[in-house]
Design a protein that fits this description.
Helix content is 59%, strand content 13%. 40% of the residues are buried. The chain is of the alpha/beta class. The longest helix has 21 residues, at 50-70. It has a five-stranded parallel beta sheet with strand order 2-1-3-4-5, sandwiched between helices.
């Protein structure tokens, strides 16, 4: 592959990943967010690295655009936003507990927790999902590769069957845009 053909190659690989995505899983994810919004429950996102940025992106897009489009906001937050709290839990307990510990203060039954992990094996994401499942929340895991532990532990999943982290992250971001347009473009 030459530099000249790299963009075409990447887009071809992304198209194959998108074609293989389960439309049922995507639609179920949209339904979960819409139901959370409709019942006024809290939506909580979390992830590491690029997935942390996706978690923030969801809350930013959905929080702003849903209110502007419908007149009624979405009660959403991301557990990746407070660096002081993350580093305090990471330092004083362990990095594996940074999300579960935050959930202990804010999670209510019927809240929706969206956990994002490309590999599906991030221990702090898994512990947060375990805590959410044990405390009456609805969980949606966005994962890639083999799905890892997250695919088995989350009550609902959107699995990107790819061993390429960037393609997984692209597909997760696209899910966020599907959710936003689905809610914002309601007739």
């Amino acid at each position: 592959m030459t530099y000249k053909n790299f963009s075409g190659d990447y887009l071809d690989r992304l198209q194959k990943v998108l074609d293989a995505l389960s439309r049922d899983e995507l639609d179920n994810g949209v339904r979960l967010v819409e139901e959370c919004w409709s019942r006024g429950a809290q939506l909580i996102t979390l992830g590491n690295g690029g997935s942390a940025m996706t978690a923030q992106h969801f809350v930013t897009d959905w929080g702003k655009m849903i209110r502007l489009s419908t007149g009624r906001g979405l009660n959403a937050r991301s557990l990746v936003d407070n660096m002081g709290l993350i580093t305090a839990y990471g330092n004083d307990l362990s990095y594996a507990d940074v999300f579960a510990e935050q959930l202990k203060d804010i999670l209510k039954p019927d809240d929706l927790v969206i956990a994002i992990s490309g590999s599906g094996n991030s221990e702090n994401v898994i512990r947060a999902v375990d805590y959410a499942n044990s405390n009456g929340a609805v969980t949606l895991g966005l994962c890639g590769f083999s799905g890892g532990k997250l695919k088995d532990k989350a009550q609902n999943t959107i699995w990107v069957n790819s061993n390429d982290m960037q393609l997984c992250e692209d597909a997760h971001a696209i899910f966020g845009h599907i959710v936003m347009q689905s809610i914002c473009n309601r007739e």
